[in-house]
Design a protein that fits this description.
alpha+beta; two-stranded antiparallel sheet; 2 helices; 2 strands
Length: 95
């Protein structure tokens, strides 16, 4: 496989995986920051609790990191590397 093809595959896979994780982390982070009540069912009984706002802030920060990972992978795998000029001149002797 070509290196560029591998880079495209890596970018698409990280975008799908990290993109889904970022969407869920962002959604739960907004719920945590806003203080929305969450209904928890345990043993047939329902409890209404709210998520701590600090946990919501952490989830929002994680969602930003999850979005940054595919961007970084795409940048480093798909960028054009500078070509080194090939010279036909002989190498000077070391002194």
């Amino acid at each position: 496989m070509d290196k560029r093809t591998i880079g495209i595959i890596a970018t698409v896979l990280t975008s799908l995986i990290c993109g889904c994780a970022a969407i869920f982390a962002c959604a739960w982070g907004v719920i945590g920051i806003s203080g929305q009540p969450i209904t928890i069912t345990e043993g047939g009984q329902q409890y209404v609790e709210s998520m701590p706002p600090s946990l919501g802030a952490v989830l929002l920060c994680l969602s930003v990191l999850f979005i940054a990972v595919p961007v970084a992978v795409g940048f480093f795998t798909l960028r054009k590397k500078p070509e080194v000029p090939i010279s036909n001149e002989p190498i000077p002797p070391a002194s």
